[in-house]
Amino acid sequence: MPTTHENWNPGKADNRHPEVAYEEKERLFLEVKNDPRYEDFLYGCYECGICVSTCPSARFYDYSPRVIAQAMAREDIERVYDIVSEDIWNCAQCFSCLRCPRGNNPGGLVTLLREVAVKNGLQETKDVLQGYSRVIYKVMLKGNQVSPDMLQPDFFPDWGPWVGEFSANMPVWRKAIPVDTLRGVTDAAWKTNRKTLLELYTIWFETGNMDIIKEIDEGLYDLLADVMQEELEEG
Amino acid sequence: MNTVEEILERKSHAVTRDAEVAPTHDIREALFELEAKGEIVVQRVPENHVEVTTKYGRTKKIPIDHTWHHKSCGQCGHIPGYTSSIYWLHRQFNLDYLDPTDQTSCTGWNYYASATSNAAAQAAVMSRNFAAAYETGYFPTIHCGTSYGHYKEIREQLVHHKELRDEVRRILDKMGKPLVIPEELVHYSEWVHVMRKKFAEKQTVDMSMVRATVHPACHYYKIVAEDAIYDPEIYGGQRTATVTATLEALGIDVADYSTWFDCCGFGFRHVLVQRDFTRSFSTLRKIEVMKNEVNPDLTVTHDTGCVTTLDKSQFSAKAHDRNVGIPVLSDAQVAALAMGAHPFRVVQFHWHSTDWRPFLDKLGINWQKYWDEFQNDLELIRAGQKSGITWEDADKPVVYGP
Is A49 helix (H, G, I), strand (E, B) or coil? Predict the structure, then answer.
């Protein structure tokens, strides 16, 4: 059977999510499409495959930035739902796909799709981000994504025996750094003053970022909100 | 914002290095227009700066000193010798810089990993940091490639979307801060680039026997590509000159390899919780290709995630008998080492995993001697006789002997 507009579906089963109503899928699609950034990220698609050839995730996963650009441009509601519930988490966000000769930004589209998946608390998204909560906790509270005390052998066993060495020597090695804002700090990447952290917490609340956290992980939200609100009240 | 016609026009002919016919708008003109309307404050580059050319031949000003250092959480957290090398280089030239405590990370790593944020929050985080720099009068220099790329993209969004500017301004008002966007967004490796000949003048370690590969950082030159430094003398102006020009100035033989455009495999979320992808990509598509094609003594890059990924991923590949084993450093660490920075007090090699000893051996640096010296520092710290290593201990360049 020749490939047509209707039957084109590379390697994917039809309607993989029958449990979700079409109207709900369409609502999520429109949420992406109505983002003010959308029109800067998608102009059409030549199907040239340049984005796929540069994409690291396409080499290791059943994942294609071209399919994402195509499905969004064709407004294929079913396929976009497959993408928003599954494919998007394979993207490495390196933005190599910006090589697109048409000027598309497939990585940017993935960012918008991810935002919608998170904001709407899709179960698949909650599952993907489950192991990631401690990182979100750190970045929201400390303003740093990673800290020295995260270098634990049980978290990074594949990084070799040195992680155990980092961890065992952490307090003294951190004192042996000449940079004033780093010296001796183990629970954050550097010393951040309290006023700055309060300003950061204000940003999280004022921009609705805390509501996003609540949607994806209520327990994490409670933990963060307690600490931040107390700090802001003491302010 | 571009129309389809503008984009097709831009992509339909070869890149011309002429600012007059550059295919993208000059974002700085838009910044000054917004400033004239009273919408934003544009922080000017300090007088002491060097002009470089970017991808389409525009001029970019890189400040030499009076800089506010927007640190990188990944560098400070896991590769502290990266940060200390950047500062050490400034100190060797008595350049005025500020290491602030009123800075947060860009939080972009988390945003690219989990999307548990939104455009307004990300723009507000950036703008709060820039306002903090502006309040001091020092000009921001951004250490992290992702922060740099992320901020370039946010700058575009702020320029193009009035409602976003209004929302960010509302939030900044609560902090008593203005909406500031710097005249240029400057990555530290651009400062390294413009200082490279000065470094070479103070170089005491011969590196002419070193062969290195370069991994250009995706978020430096792929996001808002027209802001990266390009030079016709380096790769014929077809790739960014940053890092490669620095290594060449230090006498290093920069060897080419076929997967130079590939990312490192960091993946943001992947490197923390889905590392099978990160390990596979970084070793099979980068390290092993470098090893098979040119067998370098080290590989050099200019971003947080790239150093971490390329370095840490090699252990498990080694366990599977893959052809790996290339030490990984940043350009700042290489430059500092070339000028005699202490390998442990400043460059902090002990935080790196892939064996770096053969590289130091090749340079004729008796690393064991300096490791013993560093161990003595640690003993004094453990005994409470020393609170820590300070610049007083680290500033003086080492004169390496046999």
Answer: coil
